[in-house]
């Protein structure tokens, strides 16, 4: 396929590199340096210029593009790119936006602004945070098959009852599959006798209920109930959506915002949230409000430094779990090594979402695991797949190692994947795939 | 900012005065029917017509802006009270013929206060025409003369929204229809229909032989002062003169009159009686009336009531419900002489003078919605003591309240109580100067009854007494207090400030 990407920032580059091997990619950016970088690092054609100009788009081959992705830092530009592309040809357009208001316009009438698919980074990020909040000890939670299947990555702490158990002992749930154990940077595909050790990260795939039950097993004390004390630092859009999602799930979160007018606005919007006007790093305030007693602190302030600081202070005061938003992709891992429990990066969320949706002919879902050593993909089975009409056990023989069938969904129904389970055409299969066998597997599936 | 364009305001006051001649035709007709005092109303109508016509000519193209609207509304109420006083003076019967008394009685009428200076309330002293005019003034004032003007006079419709906002107490007009004229018509339409229904019911009771003395004349007279929560009655013993059936009927209609007409319209138009239950202000209003009545009934039953009530279940409940509904809605009817009540029940009734009806009703006083706002403010204050950084918007049935509205409710409450206190002091001291013996409680309750547009209070100004004994100075102060109370104080006060008149 011919894919045209406008905007060579972190998201654009990420998408270009993950789609580059199988597709013809053209990248457009105004910044000469970035264009140069793309040309060197990725197997893609790069065009320098304003992506909202028809002339530039033509030069980049908009007329023949199958997919056009607007992913610059400006929402309005991205929408204009999609709109312009629609007048030039008939590509599938993807627009990335930060602001929720565009999504609210687009959702009830898809196609608005000439956008076929809108990806709102703030909303995606907030949704991910909300999932993390309700899943204790999780580092990552992604949903597949419209919510029928969940993938979660857990860190096993030394006080976790699961530590020291074998996979066979820990696997007490019918519809849960242990896809992988990440140990010292390596991916281990576990067998029943693999022993789970302290410090491991366990990747499981299953129904949302079973994933949640396993989460309770991993961290029995960390499961938030309705009275859980959740503090959100920063009343930007991410903070607001997080609070609103938590509110919808019956929690009564506290939201800290330093700007008075915005705090008032939030308080009006969020009747079930306690909004406080203060600096998130003001020690007097934090002590006065006993922030240390909170179960979970979410930092969604306007800079990575403030987020890190607020999370560290909160952790020092006694908050059990910290979830932090990082603008800069490179900080994600760093933050987690210095004491932040989970770092969530909006750009990565967007890149995942866009990549997943542009592969949508076959692959409808995707999540990266660890530092991209593996990914979880959701594939719709067609007649030519190795799975079509065969049992998982039969198909497994034709696939390389490093692949685990995590779940099967048929319509809205969850089917536990066992060796003898027969897979039909039209089923969705969620697979855990190691990076090195990725291409080979997707080929066969 | 330009200077105040007072000509515009006064010219529009002229329009109101001119059209005052129309309702005067009703007592005129009664005068003709009974053959008494008809000329009084013919002359009054003539004076109103001519004066109004002359005033109108001050400005042929009046245009209203914020300040002009305030001036127009404040002066209109003053003007109609002055012209409403003419019949009392011209008829020259009894104490009310004195100009100061006539002004008091007229203002008490239009503001739906119901405080009287008449010494002998009977048809021996006063003609039926004059007595009907007294009832009529309350009916005109109840839903508001300006609202009526906006509804039917095109000259007032342009700045109508602003005018109605100034006149109709509360937090702004709830538009019931796309145009303000339509809204005004709906309000007056509802008001008219409710009054007509009450006339029918009262007279029906009379025909059914369970309402002795409720002649057609009395039915009309009492309907005209029930719906505006007025309280005047051509009977010297007020509602005590009538049967329990009449008392229950009137209590029910007073309760309706104290309900927001916008809410009543919702119930009628959408056939949705549950809208009442969903409305928080209505729940509180009924809750307060219910609780006070229940407590009152127990006290009266146990021996703190009049002879008729003590020991009688129905009688004590009825006496209590009637008085508390009458007082909370600021009507001021009495079905018993509550001067004979025990001190505990009297104090309870005094306290209920400060409740008021709902916003958007014909009732006066502080109003239930403000109390609701104030109670929320207090709760927030207490909360922010322990959580000083919390940002807590106030909500009324889910909708966020503007902080300006919150502030104005608080300011109103403060000013209201200041006026009440100052009024009581002036009444007390001026009476002392004139050698009148007056108790503190009498002075306090009189002040509360006047600024709250209730009417009767305790002691000498009790339900079977009157305001006739006060000095002329005191009566003029009371005149102003009633005027202020009806327009919710600020529109009147603002006219007396310097910046209002300057650039």
TrEMBL record, chain A:
InterPro entries: K_uptake_TrkA, NAD(P)-bd_dom_sf, RCK_C, RCK_C_sf, RCK_N, Trk_Ktr_HKT_K-transport
GO CC annotation terms, alphabetical: plasma membrane
Domain RCK N-terminal: from-to ranges: 1-119, 227-344
Organism this protein belongs to: Halorutilus salinus
Gene, per the UniProt record: trkA
Record PROSITE patterns: RCK_C, RCK_N
Gene Ontology molecular-function annotations: potassium ion transmembrane transporter activity
Name this polypeptide is given: Trk system potassium transporter TrkA
Keyword NAD: yes
RCK C-terminal domain sequence ranges: 139-220, 364-445
PANTHER family (UniProt xref): POTASSIUM CHANNEL PROTEIN 2-RELATED-RELATED, TRK SYSTEM POTASSIUM UPTAKE PROTEIN TRKA
Leader sequence segment: none
Biological role: Part of a potassium transport system.
Keyword line: Ion transport, NAD, Potassium, Potassium transport, Transport
UniProtKB/TrEMBL annotation, chain B:
Subcellular location per the Swiss-Prot or TrEMBL entry: Cell inner membrane
Species of provenance: Halorutilus salinus
Membrane topology, record value: Multi-pass membrane protein
Gene Ontology MF annotations: potassium:chloride symporter activity
Pfam families from the UniProt entry: TrkH
InterPro entries per the UniProt record, alphabetical: Cat_transpt (IPR003445), TrkH (IPR004772)
Transmembrane annotation, as ranges: 12-33, 39-58, 70-90, 139-158, 186-208, 245-268, 284-304, 347-369, 409-428, 476-496
Entry's family note: Belongs to the TrkH potassium transport family.
Any one GO cellular component localisation term in the record: plasma membrane
Name of this chain's protein: TrkH family potassium uptake protein
UniProt keywords, alphabetically: Cell inner membrane, Cell membrane, Ion transport, Membrane, Potassium, Potassium transport, Transmembrane, Transmembrane helix, Transport
């Amino acid at each position: 396929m011919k894919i045209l990407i406008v905007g060579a920032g972190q998201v654009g580059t990420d998408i270009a590199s993950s789609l580059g091997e199988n597709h013809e990619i053209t990248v457009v950016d105004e910044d000469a340096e970035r264009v140069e970088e793309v040309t060197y690092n990725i197997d893609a054609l790069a065009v320098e210029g304003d992506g909202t100009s028809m002339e530039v788009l033509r030069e980049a081959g908009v007329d023949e593009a199958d997919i056009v992705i607007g992913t610059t830092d400006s929402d309005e530009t991205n929408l204009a790119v999609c709109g312009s592309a629609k007048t030039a040809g008939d590509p599938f357009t993807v627009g990335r936006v930060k602001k929720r208001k565009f999504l609210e316009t687009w959702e009830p009438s898809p196609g608005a602004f000439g956008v076929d698919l809108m990806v709102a980074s703030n909303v995606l990020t907030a949704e991910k945070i909300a999932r993390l909040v309700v899943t204790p000890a999780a580092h990552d939670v992604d949903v597949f098959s419209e919510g029928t299947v969940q993938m979660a990555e857990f860190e096993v702490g030394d006080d976790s009852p699961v530590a020291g158990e074998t996979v066979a002992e820990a696997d007490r749930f019918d519809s849960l599959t242990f896809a992988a154990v990440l140990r010292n940077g390596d991916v281990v595909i576990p067998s029943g006798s693999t022993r789970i050790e302290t410090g491991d990260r366990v990747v499981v795939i299953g129904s949302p209920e079973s994933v949640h039950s396993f989460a309770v097993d991993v961290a029995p004390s960390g499961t938030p109930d309705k009275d859980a004390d959740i503090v959100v630092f920063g009343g930007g859009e991410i903070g607001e959506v997080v609070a609103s999602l938590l509110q919808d799930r019956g929690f009564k979160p506290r939201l800290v915002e330093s700007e008075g007018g915005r705090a008032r606005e939030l308080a009006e919007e969020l009747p079930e949230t306690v909004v406080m006007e203060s600096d998130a790093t003001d020690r007097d305030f934090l002590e006065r409000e006993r922030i240390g007693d909170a179960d979970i602190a979410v930092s969604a302030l306007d800079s990575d430094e403030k987020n890190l600081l607020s999370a560290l202070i909160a952790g020092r005061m006694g908050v059990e779990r910290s979830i932090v938003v990082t603008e800069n992709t490179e900080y994600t891992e760093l933050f987690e090594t210095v004491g932040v429990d989970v770092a969530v990066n909006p750009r990565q969320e967007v890149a995942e979402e866009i990549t997943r949706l542009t592969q949508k002919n076959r692959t409808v879902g995707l999540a990266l695991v660890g530092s991209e050593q593996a990914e979880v993909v959701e594939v719709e089975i067609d007649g030519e797949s190795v799975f079509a009409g065969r049992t998982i056990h039969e198909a497994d023989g034709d696939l390389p190692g490093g692949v685990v069938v995590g779940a099967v969904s048929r319509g809205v129904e969850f089917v536990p994947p066992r060796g003898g389970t027969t897979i039909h055409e039209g089923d969705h299969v969620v697979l855990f795939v190691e990076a090195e066998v990725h291409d080979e597997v997707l080929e066969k599936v | 900012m330009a200077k105040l364009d007072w000509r515009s305001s006064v010219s529009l006051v002229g329009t109101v005065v001119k059209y005052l001649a129309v309702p005067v035709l009703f007592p005129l007709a009664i005068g003709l029917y009974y053959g008494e005092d008809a000329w009084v109303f013919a002359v009054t109508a003539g004076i109103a017509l001519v004066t109004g016509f002359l005033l109108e000519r001050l400005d042929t193209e009046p245009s209203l802006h914020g300040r002009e609207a305030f001036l127009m509304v404040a002066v209109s109420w003053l003007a109609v009270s002055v012209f409403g006083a003419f019949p009392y003076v011209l008829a020259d019967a009894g104490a009310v013929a004195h100009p100061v008394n006539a002004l008091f009685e007229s203002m008490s009428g239009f503001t739906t206060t119901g405080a009287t200076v008449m010494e002998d309330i009977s048809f021996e002293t006063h003609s039926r025409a004059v007595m009907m005019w007294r009832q009529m003034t309350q009916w005109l004032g109840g839903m508001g003369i300006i609202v009526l003007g906006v509804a039917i006079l095109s000259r007032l419709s342009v700045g109508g929204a602003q005018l109605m906002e100034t006149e109709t107490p509360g937090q702004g007009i709830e538009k019931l229809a796309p145009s303000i004229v339509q809204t005004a018509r709906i309000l007056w339409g509802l008001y008219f229909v409710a009054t007509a229904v009450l006339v029918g019911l009262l007279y029906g009771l009379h025909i059914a032989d369970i309402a002795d003395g409720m002649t057609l004349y009395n039915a009309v007279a009492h309907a005209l002062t029930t719906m505006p929560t007025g309280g005047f009655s051509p009977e010297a013993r007020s509602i005590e003169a009538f049967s329990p059936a009449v008392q229950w009927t009137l209590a029910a209609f007073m309760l309706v009159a104290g309900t927001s007409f916008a809410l009543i319209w919702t119930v009628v138009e959408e056939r949705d009686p549950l809208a009442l239950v969903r409305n928080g202000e209505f729940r509180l209003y009924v809750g307060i009336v219910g609780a006070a009545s229940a407590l009152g009934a127990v006290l009266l039953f146990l021996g703190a009531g009049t002879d008729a009530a003590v020991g009688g279940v129905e009688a004590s409940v009825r006496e209590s419900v009637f008085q508390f509904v009458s007082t909370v809605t600021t009507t001021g009817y009495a079905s018993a002489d509550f001067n004979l009540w025990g001190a505990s029940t009297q104090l309870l009734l005094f306290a209920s003078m400060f409740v008021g009806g709902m916003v958007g009703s014909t009732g006066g006083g502080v109003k239930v919605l403000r109390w609701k706002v104030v109670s929320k403010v207090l709760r927030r204050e207490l909360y922010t003591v322990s959580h000083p950084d919390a940002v807590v918007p106030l909500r009324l049935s889910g909708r966020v309240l503007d902080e300006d509205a919150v502030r104005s409710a608080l300011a109103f409450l403060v000013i209201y109580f200041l006026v009440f206190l100052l009024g009581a002091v002036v009444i007390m001291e001026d009476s002392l100067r004139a050698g009148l013996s007056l108790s503190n409680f009498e002075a306090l309750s009189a002040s509360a009854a006047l600024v709250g547009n209730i009417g009767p209070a305790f002691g000498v100004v009790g339900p079977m007494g009157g305001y006739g004994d006060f000095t002329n100075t005191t009566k003029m102060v009371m005149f102003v207090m009633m005027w202020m109370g009806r327009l919710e104080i600020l529109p009147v006060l603002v006219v007396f400030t310097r910046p209002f008149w300057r650039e």
